[in-house]
Design goal:
32% helix; alpha+beta; 3-stranded antiparallel sheet; 19 strands; 6-stranded mixed sheet; 482 residues
Length: 482
């Protein structure tokens, strides 16, 4: 039953009921019908809902159902929706109404949900776990040390009074570097890890891991707000450049843009000593991640390249963890020669079923990119192996295994996830500034071929999917995800 004409509220509700009865699986036809109904319903609401319409809506609410993110229709009384201001991923939550892919924008759909009696989850419904045990003293000292450049951007030349004002404001901000920040909602059994958070009421800034990690790009917004700086003179990106760039690069930028840097003292130290950086508790035990094993994820790297030092050691280390995982799953994992360039590391055989071709990637927890060689990409796409090709991502922090992410039928899974990029959480890359890499190309080390870069944190770690299993500590019988 297609939508061919302009519908009134009653007709829209009747068609919603009809779709609910016939919607047995996720198909383009059913999605198109659903989207069209919401478009008509939105126009009805914009024209005004009269008393008769409201009575029909109230009656429909008693038995009406809406589609949730787990692709099932559920009763109005059992569902909620996230305020778009929260910018949180839905995670296929069975209690969250799915926003449509149609000409109805988020604001319009929120109005539809409000009129249909769907309960809204806002900031006050969320609980956030903020660990205040790890006070960071490095970033505030860095801001103070570079306040001279912030002052020049504001006034055009050096201003001691502006620098003193900035330093005073920094003293009134608390900087925390906890191992984890978690936001939860007990109404729908929801949990999401956050890379950073700004507690405006207490003027406190929290961030996980390194302050200049690509995940912490929001720090620029927080700092501009907390320091009450003019965004017309200092943009988010420029603020982070002042803190992260080499001093000579900063001076060059200021000169090229007509600022007076004549009063900058040559002997001034603009970067605090690294030995004074306070580390998180996770970095203080015998399994701490040593600096020489951390690949740079500075926010200004055009594309974090998925490489690190001592690649051979960590590659073998990760393969041992992956082999153990497959053995626990009942497979015999046979290591293949790297020199043959087959496109996979292990041929995994089971007593029953088909063989699995497994490629293993070992990556530090704070590096969002993994690399695939052309042979590996060809293999995962090939007709005779794509259904049985698996990508195993071994995530570690030094010698500590954090988790193993096992992606089955990689080609089909990747296509499915890419088709739903519109459902992904809001990126932290601001308009006309940097770009968050999802898939990319970069030359290999020899410079004679391309390698494919994949953002595993965005595509595989942050969503639930039937082809993605996440094993904490690499143990298959302790699953997280689908």
């Amino acid at each position: 039953m297609g939508v061919k004409r302009e519908l009134n509220v009653e007709s829209c509700l009747n068609i919603l009921d009809d779709i609910t009865k016939k919607y047995t699986e996720h198909t383009k036809k059913q999605d198109r019908r659903l989207n069209q109904v919401f478009e008509h319903l939105s126009r009805c609401i914009m024209q005004g809902v009269n008393k008769e319409d409201q009575e029909k809506i109230n009656s429909w609410i008693n038995s009406g159902k809406l589609l949730t993110y787990d692709e099932k229709f559920r009763s109005i009384n059992d569902v909620f929706y996230f305020s778009t201001s929260l910018e949180l991923p839905p995670k296929r939550n069975s209690n969250l109404v799915k926003f449509p892919d149609s000409s109805v924008n988020c604001s319009q759909f929120e109005k539809i949900l409000d009129i249909l009696g769907v309960r809204k989850i806002d900031t006050e419904d969320m609980q956030i776990d903020l660990n205040q045990n790890v006070l960071d003293n490095y970033l505030p000292r860095l801001i103070k040390a570079r306040s001279i450049f912030i002052g020049i951007l504001i006034t055009g030349s050096r201003s001691i009074s502006i620098e003193d004002q900035i330093k005073d404001k920094v003293d009134n901000i608390r900087f925390y570097n906890p191992p984890k920040i978690t936001m939860t909602c007990s109404l729908i059994d929801y949990k999401e890890s956050l890379p950073n958070y700004y507690d405006q009421d207490n003027n406190s800034i929290y961030y996980v891991r390194k302050w200049n990690s690509i995940k912490n790009i929001n720090l620029s917004t927080y700092l501009l707000d907390a320091l009450k700086l003019d965004r017309m003179k200092i943009t988010n990106l420029l603020m982070l450049q002042l803190l992260d760039d080499d001093i000579e690069d900063i001076k060059e930028y200021l000169l090229e843009n007509g600022y007076d840097i004549g009063d900058i003292p040559e002997e001034e130290k603009f970067t605090p000593d690294p030995e004074n950086i306070q580390e998180t508790p996770e970095f203080t035990d015998n399994t701490q991640l040593k600096p020489e094993n951390i690949s740079s994820n500075s926010i200004f790297v055009y594309s974090p390249d998925g490489t690190g030092e001592n690649k051979e050691y960590w590659g073998e280390w990760g393969e041992k963890k992956a082999k153990r995982m497959y053995e626990l799953l009942g497979y015999c994992a046979e290591k293949q020669s790297d020199y043959l360039a087959l496109g996979y590391d292990f041929l995994c055989k089971a007593s029953k079923g088909k063989n699995i071709y497994s490629e293993v990637k070992t990556i530090s927890y704070n590096n969002p990119i993994i690399r695939l060689k052309t042979s590996q990409w060809k293999c995962l796409c090939s007709e005779n192996r794509k259904d049985n090709y698996e990508l195993v991502i071994v995530v570690h922090e030094g010698d500590r295994l954090i988790e193993i992410i096992r992606v089955s039928s990689v080609w089909a899974t990747l296509k499915n996830i890419l088709s739903k990029l519109n459902d992904q959480s809001i990126t932290q890359a601001n308009y006309q500034e940097i770009v968050e890499v999802i898939l990319g190309l970069q030359k290999n080390q020899a410079g004679n071929a391309n390698e494919i870069l994949i953002n595993w944190q965005r595509l595989f770690q942050s969503i639930q999917h039937s082809h993605i299993n996440i094993y904490p500590q690499g143990i298959p019988n302790v699953t997280k995800g689908s």
